[in-house]
Design a protein that fits this description.
Layout lengths: L2 H15 L14 H4 L11 H16 L12 H4 L7 E5 L7 H4 L7 E5 L7 H13 L4 E7 L3 H12 L8 H16 L5 H18 L4 H7 L4 E7 L6 E3 L1
Parallel strand pairs: 1-2, 1-3, 3-4
Antiparallel strand pairs: 4-5
Helix pairs in contact: 7-8, 8-9
Bound molecules: zinc ion (ZN).
Length: 238
């Protein structure tokens, strides 16, 4: 069953009546396979527990002791439902693979990927689906070292040149982070711009009304920022 098929019903009901369903219980009609069970969904954990799960998974990955290797396990169960315990905004960079970096299997992470890991309108809508309908208690904005999108934005700004095709849309989205980083006069502008890009998008998400901001205010959702170091495989908070 396609969860998105019922998302429009939730949106209509929620936005038109003003009584948005934000809890697993309220989402009962959308997830009949598990909602009728008295047992809590596997992702019904606190934001802090979700973050701890990511941190522990990354520690395993960085130490090359990943445990998620049998990807056929749980396939039948996943065919009818998904319970991602964390949502992520990640870069499209081929060297950054969230499921691997956090040692998680299919169904565990709800990931929005775009070059430069920023949140656009469609990305925001996707995350709203992840946290409101799928009840993911955590969003992580994940930047990374040696980000080509951030680097290209810096170069385009420095050279005063317009990139070809649709690439200027990436520059427009990332430019505020580079400007913020330049003001700090850092030794490593790329690293600082990457961190600022994460911070700005965390801030944007935290204030994204009405869905995500309400969940954050209620303590049901936490939004954190981090940067993945390609060389070490380690994820560090920013
Ligand atoms: Zn990147």
């Amino acid at each position: 069953m396609c969860g998105f098929c019922d998302a429009s019903n939730l949106t209509r009901r929620g936005l038109l009546t003003g009584a948005l369903a934000v809890s697993a219980a309220a989402a009962l009609p959308l997830s009949p396979a598990w909602a009728q069970s008295p047992a809590p969904a596997p992702n019904a954990i606190s934001p802090d527990e979700a973050l701890k799960r990511l941190q522990e998974g990354n520690a395993r990955y960085a130490a090359n002791t990943s445990t998620n290797k049998d990807f056929s396990a749980g396939r039948i169960a996943r065919a009818s439902a998904q319970y991602p315990f964390a949502s992520l905004v990640s870069c499209a960079d081929s060297r950054v693979a969230p499921e691997l970096a956090f040692d998680q299997g299919p169904g565990e992470l709800f990931v929005v990927r775009v070059a430069g890991n920023f949140v656009n309108e469609e990305g925001l809508a996707s995350l709203e689906y992840g946290v409101v309908v799928l009840n993911s208690p955590l969003i992580m904005v994940l930047g990374h070292s040696d980000c080509g999108a951030v680097n290209a934005t810096m170069k385009a700004m420095q050279d005063g040149k317009t990139l070809p095709g649709h690439l200027p849309s990436l520059v427009d989205a990332i430019r505020p982070a580079v400007v913020a980083a330049q003001a700090k006069k850092p030794a490593d502008l790329l690293a600082e711009a990457t961190a600022e890009n994460v911070r700005l998008n965390v801030k944007y998400l935290a204030g994204a009304k009405p869905l995500i901001s309400d969940l954050v205010a209620a303590g049901k959702l936490k939004i954190v920022g981090a940067v993945y170091d390609i060389a070490s495989g380690r994820v560090m908070p920013v």
